Amino acid sequence: MPKIIATVGVTGITRDPSKPSTKKWGDQGVELVAGRLDDKDSLLRAFQGANVIFGFTDFWHYLPDPNNHKGKAIVDAVAANVATLDRLVLSTCSDARKWSNGDNKWVLHFDAKAEAVKYLESTYPELWAKTSLLQLGYYVTNWRSFVATPKKLEDGSFKVSIPVDGDRKIHMVNPAADAGSFVKALVELLAGRHLVGAGSYISFNEWCDTFSKVNGRRCVFERMADRNYEELMGPVVGLELEDMFKYFDKYGYDGVDPSVLYPRDLRIGIKYTTVRDFMKREDWTSIM
């Protein structure tokens, strides 16, 4: 859990403030308030009088909610408090269907987040004028799950396989460590920024090379054949992740969206974690 710098009036909205996982935030000075994204009244109460709001939704809630009603609920509740608001920082993802001209239509967890942004821009112009967007990069922590987990081979070396070109550079981020730094920067700057928050811009060949140097174990990348994800993980999640990597392969992580900025473009000091720094601190014993 990232450490929070002591500040005044920080409120965190959670479904259950009594849970141990959320109580830790209270120990760092965060006022915990009960709220649910499917309960508009709870959001209205929580947002009342706030001058800065960071809104985000779980990637995977799109499965029962492809139109991102929960993201839109955040927007509606924030708009009701726009008079006191200085800044909304809204978490989003690349609009894959738009930037691929319809070629990649199954990256639903990206497109669902983009739906909330389009809804905000078209429905609440006053709020839109106070908004900046944060698009966090590909999570470096994904190796811990089914995505890009290094597989140990008989000779003790490792192999990473996903359906993307090994030389395609992707923006990568340590979300738990660095999301707060990117949000803070967007609060301090004028509204209207669209930031891709990432600590490294590297390929999976470079990822494997870094893994080798950090762990002293040879690691190679091998492109996974198309449709393998769908066969391994089923027709919903597998198809979606495969299409996501195809999108990365052809259009990059952000789809070459001309509105996006990167940390280097902001010209202010932002603390972030590189992939190498993350790997040096990570516990790899589970796969060794």
From TrEMBL:
Alphabetical keyword list: NADP
KW NADP (keyword) present: yes
UniProt-listed SUPFAM superfamilies: NAD(P)-binding Rossmann-fold domains (SSF51735)
Pfam families (UniProt xref): NmrA
Source organism, top-level taxon: Eukaryota
Keyword Ribonucleoprotein: no
GO cellular component, one term: nucleus
Domain (NmrA-like): residue spans on this chain: 10-278
Family statement drawn from the similarity comment of this UniProt entry: Belongs to the NmrA-type oxidoreductase family.
Descriptive protein name: NAD(P)-binding protein
Organism: Setomelanomma holmii
